[in-house]
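Example record for the data management plan.
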Amino acid sequence: MPVHWYYDREALKRDYGFVQDYLAPRSPHPDSILWRSSYQAPNPKGEILHDQARYWGQKGIHYHQFLQAGENTLNIKLCSLLIQSLNDRGGYDPEDYLQRYIEFMTTPGNHRDTYIEEAHRHFFSQYARGASPEKCAAEEKHIGGLVGMAPLALFYQNDAVTARKAALEHLALTHEGPKMKEAGELFLDLLLPLLEGRNVREAVAEAKRKSAGALMAHPFDEWLDKDDAEIVAGRLSTACYVDYSIPAVAYLAMKYSDDPERGLVVNTNLGGDNVHRGAVLGALLGAANGLEGFPPRWVEGLREPPPEMTANRK
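Corresponding structural encoding:
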């Protein structure tokens, strides 16, 4: 979290060293572009920035400046909101989730993130102008939208058809469009087989064979003996767009399939959108290795662990 969207890896090392544990963010953030981001709520129904609004438009502002070490960023907190809905409703209920989402985002103090990504800003702009919640999504291309699919894949892990339908429906509530649908389907093509017991390399190879798009059209096997920065920051990009971030996740998942800790540490220190890329990568490595694949200090160090799924996993 503290090194999210550091594109200058030398600056990342200077400010935080080699990151392998939870840390609190420091200010200023040298690569922050919050100064050129904007959001103006059309009316009170769309107010989601609350007391963070005064930091927008300023240079050097850290996207997560008020979060503590081990605290989750906004999109991951929304995953907890989804799990609560699944538990309470006994299954996926998009209307119930949307009600919780709207209340969560429009109530001051529910989270302390300064940055709110474009998809959420678009949603609440449309909602404030009178669109029904089911019709407020933006056409998107950012990997941050995929993280909310993981709880649904886990909840319905014994019913791949229902898992796929629910996860793609959930994705489209805030991140719709052909680019996101392709990326979402690919994420499920990787995640669901891992939950069934397949290994990562088999899952990636099978997804590559099935894929007709460009996201998997890369020589992953040939890359495995290369330096990670040469691949993720060189041939691909550390940016948040799924065109780069999904292949980067597939590469890192293959290379560190048996070492989740190392894979996530490498991902963090590569910079860019390492938070959302790391969430997707962590879901894959976690599905393949189980909770015991992660170091206890990471599990115990979470300030707000996700709620357990109390409903039956259908």
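Summary line stored alongside the record: The chain has a mean pLDDT of 96.
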